[in-house]
Write a structure and sequence with these properties.
single chain, about 325 residues, Rossmann fold, six-stranded parallel β-sheet
Length: about 325
């Protein structure tokens, strides 16, 4: 039996075409994660919760989750455990002598990586990631599996855009904003989302996909919606995080990152290929929107995607290898 641990919202789209009825799925209480799992028809056992930004609370909740996972998983006949940058899964799997596969595309998430990479049987990473940082964080270079592509390719692989967005009152010429990952333990940057929105609203209709229950002046919050369809139809996507930025870039929507820290290797790769742009200056964001052509980016994105490996196939191969060995 395969165990999949889903701890963050973007992981639902990644795993939804991998999970089948013969697998056990665990999750945690975190924002709209449960609703998103249900929406995509994934049954999960909810164990533990996200603790917000407080370091001490994060540690305590993570330890509590490990105990509960150990109690439940130890009663099951698990052959392989899989997650995407989960802290708890590799630790529980290692303790129970279960082979584990961890997907990592954030080489700067040192707090999570140091607690997990040394315990994993396989670590699957995009070619663009700086694997030297993972090795410095404790990863065994012999266990690192590199593939040519991005994990987000799995998120959008079967996406078929609707003719229009699902919210009728949204105008056709809108921009979509995603705030910084302010709850993540690795996030040390400043929150400039409101400054970005203040500049955008002067010339655009602005909608925001919030991280939690926060609100922003001058932008309407869209919750529990089909984010890929919203991104696809937007005039531009402006993101302070990572996953949605990369989904947008691969969909060929004009994508501007305002991530305020060191850029991940996967993001630098998309910037180099001309599918993503980066600035933390609000006025530059607005000027970039006017310069970018969606039709041209759609063609460029399609050509680049054709040359990428399917990350789900990489995972399936590694699962088979571990189950045979």
């Amino acid at each position: 039996m395969i165990w999949v641990d889903i701890t963050n919202l973007p992981h639902v789209l990644f795993f939804k075409n991998f999970i089948n009825k013969g697998m056990v799925v665990t999750s945690r209480k975190f924002g709209m994660l449960k609703k998103l799992l249900i929406r995509h028809g994934i049954d999960s056992i909810e164990i533990g919760k996200h603790a917000g930004k407080d370091t001490k609370k994060k540690l305590i909740e993570s330890l509590k989750r490990q105990v509960k996972l150990a109690e439940i998983i130890s009663k099951m006949d698990i052959d392989v455990a899989i997650s995407k940058q989960s802290v708890e899964m590799p630790r529980v799997a290692f303790g129970l002598k279960i082979p584990s596969i961890q997907m990592i595309d954030n080489e700067f998430a040192e707090e999570q990586n140091r607690l997990s990479v040394s315990l994993c049987s396989r670590i699957i990473v995009p070619k663009a990631l700086d694997k030297r940082l993972l090795i410095n964080q404790g990863a065994d270079r012999r266990r690192i599996k590199i593939f040519n592509g991005l994990f987000e390719l799995a998120n959008i692989r079967l996406f078929n855009p609707a003719e229009d967005v699902e919210v009728p009152e949204i105008p056709g010429n809108y921009v979509l904003v995603r705030p910084e990952p302010r709850f993540a333990s690795y996030f040390r940057g400043s929150n400039i989302t409101q400054e970005i929105i203040d500049e955008l609203k002067k010339s655009h209709d602005v909608f925001v996909i919030p991280r939690g229950h926060e609100t922003y002046n001058g932008a309407r919050a869209l919750k529990n919606k089909d984010s890929l369809n919203l991104i696809y139809h937007a005039k531009a996507f402006i993101g302070g995080g990572g996953t949605m930025n990369r989904e947008s870039a691969l969909l060929g929507t004009p994508t501007i990152s305002f991530y305020p820290q060191d850029l991940l290797g996967v993001d630098r790769m998309l910037i180099k290929k001309g599918l993503m742009y980066h600035t933390t200056d609000p006025k530059t964001v607005v000027s970039l929107i006017a310069e970018l052509s969606k039709p041209d980016l759609r063609k460029k994105a399609a050509a680049i995607k054709r040359k990428m490996d399917d990350p789900l196939e990489i995972i399936k191969n590694e699962v088979n290898n571990l189950m045979i060995s």
